[in-house]
Amino acid sequence: MVNATQDTNSAAALFASLNANSGAAATTSTAADTQDRFLKLLVTQMKNQDPLNPMDNAQVTSQMAQLSTVTGIDKLNVTLQALSDSMASSQSLQAAATMIGHGVLVPGSGVDLANGFGHGGIDLAQSVDRLDISIYDQAGALVRNFSLGAQPVGLVNWQWDGRNNSGNSVTEGSYIFTVDAAQAGKKVDAAALQFGMVNSVTQDSQGVTLSVGQLDGIALSQVRQIL
Fold it and tell me: Looking at the whole model, is its pTM more than 0.85?
């Protein structure tokens, strides 16, 4: 026969030990898993109790109350997390919806020439003493290049007047641009940003995405600036 000494907090102590040993797995257990482990622990205690000093009703009631508390907290945490996720998703969708009809800068190297102007942006990792823009047509032929000179770290907006290097107006449509940035003769990282109007907002399992100009599936987090 196996004898087991007990004190008034034996179940709580064993339950805490069980949780501590389970490590990270315990943090992800469901309320049902927690209840199952607790009941198994309680049954084991009762099977191995000292017959000369058995558990009384108060001890059993106390331990069952602990189980109820743990299970209730588990369920409350799940409910609060679901509510928090729902609210965050709703707020993101509402924020994105207010952007419809506004111009934004997102990662991309396209530039649309319309009404005689084209717009774009650049995200500089550090300040530069030279920043050059080169614009190409869809066939890859150089149309225009110009310099923006020295620029500070951060976002830089630029505008194209729709003319080529000869000073003649070019056909409106879609073009491509590249960026060349340098500081003290050394190349500097510069991310091209494409300008576009937000046409629509979509929410799916991947989160909130935007349709920007001719680009689809742009994540809300990719919007660098609202103009």
Answer: no
